[in-house]
Amino acid sequence: MKRFADALSRAAAQPVRSRAVDTLCPYCGVGCAVTYVADTERNRILYARGRDGAANAGRLCVKGRYGFDYADHAQRLTHPLIRRESAYPKGQLSPLEKRPEKPGGPVDYDDLLPHFREASWDEALDLVAGRFKAIRDRDGGQALAGLGSAKGSNEEAYLFQKLVRAVFGSNNVDHCTRLCHASSVAALVEGIGSGAVTNIVRDIARADVAFLTGCNPTANHPVAATFMKEAAQAGTRLIVVNSRRPIIAEHAALYLPIRPGTDVALHNALLHVLIRDDLVDHAFIRERTEGFEQLAETVKAYPPERAARLCDVPAQDIERAARMIGDAHAVLFFWGMGISQHTHGTDNARGLISLAMITGNVGRPGTGLHPLRGQNNVQGASDAGLIPMFYPDYQPVDDEDVRRRFEQAWGVQLSPQPGLTVTEMIKAARSGKVRGMYILGENPFVSDPDVNKVREGLTNLEFLAVQDIFLTETAEFADVILPASSFMEKTGSYTNTDRRVQLGSPVLDLPGEARQDWELICEIGRRMGFAMEYGSVAQVFDEFAAATRAYATLSHTALGARGRWYPCADPEHSEGDPIVFQDSFPSGKARLVPARFQPAEEQPDADYPFVLSTGRVLEHWHTGTMTRRSRALDAISPEGFMEVHPGDARSLGLRDGDVATVRSRRGEVRIRARITDAVLPGTVFIPMHFREACANLLTDPRIDPDGKIPGFKFCAVSVQAERCDVGVVSAPHR
After folding, report:
1. Are residues 646 and 509 in the same domain?
2. Containing domain of residue 481, as a range?
3. Which residue, 85, 255, 274, 359, is most buried by CB atoms nearer than 10 A?
4. What pLDDT digit, counting tens, does each position of 61-110 carry?
5. Cis bond leading into 416, ω under 30°?
6. φ, ψ for residue 392 (rounded to 5)?
7. 39-59, pLDDT tens digit by residue?
8. Residue 484: helix, strand or coil by DSSP?
9. Whole-model pTM above 0.90?
10. How far, in Å, CA of 515 to CA of 328, rounded?
11. CB 296 within 8 A of CB 274
């Protein structure tokens, strides 16, 4: 103890040179304002504190407060890497597999590095540009594809989609919105002409009722959840709908534990009651919507009694929920990936849009439509055009007038053909139609459904370049790996779930030879013969903003320390519009699109009797690339798990903590069981973060026909208890 005390005294006596930097949290879409205090000599962050941002009012969650040390992790990539010619074939040794001599964990990071060699930047960039150019010139632009990141800035997203469209020669560009809210965006663009939220999270304080469906904000948007709980305590009545009971349900006036995949039936029953009992806003319907008659005719077939049988929710609770909505002056609708991540996710969102429209709950305080955005810049990345069917600001690529404007701005001829989505890229890679891919900051080998098919696609590529901060599971397949900048090392703008555009500032210096992402994108474009010359990130933002209506008045200077909501008519004197569409919609009138209930294609049966849903936990993020390299977060939540209902656990012979094998028609994982009545009988839940118990080995790759999003929330599985005590089944990053 004396030696420890002496060491503390010596450490305290040595002054630490530090600086405080105001920036943002790099995780979820809430967009919390943070101050990081960094040790400038050791180039590491000492601690974080919340600052008074519009989204968080000084609050932080566990990820924002403690999840910053991934940036100085020993596994950071610091030099360009090129695959050795003698390396094993891509995909033969996968980080998701356990080697016989190491049965307790995944392939070690150090096992992968020998298969690559360090290279100079010129060699690596020339190789990337040369191989992409050769494929394009030989096979055409459709043979190339780019997968960007919602973790990057608006400027990086804009440059990345510009590179793919103007230099690669196709619209084959996408990002993780395809795996989270693509169906929500599809329904919103179809319905009102915009994919953005209509009201901010904190406006829940002015709502009489808040309808929270398919979301778990206390885990996925924790700071937003604090405002929701405060609103409930102050009198806002929460209606919570979910097939896995979220903690926010403890604050609900009404909780509906819906059977997985039956949201359309519930929405139609609510619409049925509202129309039947004349709890609708006739003036709003007449003046601001179209298609009401067809909607009303469709929902006649969904009385509460029928929906109760489909959803396994009491008919009287459906009636009660409808009356709560219909009697309220202001209702705010929130939803998450429990709505969007279905093969009928667009239909789910259409129902929520109709509920808001027929009751006149848009464009006023305490009302609106708010799909809670998952990643810190998924809203901005979508706004910036990182979508295969839209240029920036959701301008269709197949609109001739729009395309001509971008051709004139960029000085090249552009493809009129909408591009491939994430899952379509992988399918095209498997068939040989896509020969080369550029992946920036994404990890599809863990995040995409049916990862054995992803393996086939990545392995079949002629050339793969990965730009990232770690040697991810996807980077293991790369021919060239480019060491990039983490959030903590870059300047850029980010758009949160509230449409608030905020500036992030560098806290740390880049490690080793790592470079800024935006500069690398431009460098590849230049080496492929296309001028991408910018003096600063601000110049990139100005070009992006000029191509849009939503951002047109904004600049880096105008954003200031707190940011601005878009649209913002006068950024010098206003923070922008927290509430939009007060008088009209971008599309004119809102389009009410009816939907009929259809069950998921893959249903449970005797061989696969359970329904699997995947999702997130509070401590981790996405594929765990960042949070599992954070010491505090990994210590709190070090391994994967499966939640199972107590009744099912008894039938299976499972005790809490036992190991089980979970199988689907696509693969299997071994994982520990947690017994909880948060999940419904006949269902199990597995988080997506843990590569050793990879949930997406199991998931169904079939997609929504409109949003083209996979159905991560529904696939049939079997569960089998293992009778032996096997120790740990997962291991953290080291």
Report:
1. no
2. 81-179+392-528
3. 359
4. 999 999 999 999 999 999 999 999 765 566 554 444 443 332 233 445 67
5. no
6. -50, 145
7. 999 999 999 999 999 999 999
8. coil
9. yes
10. 53
11. no
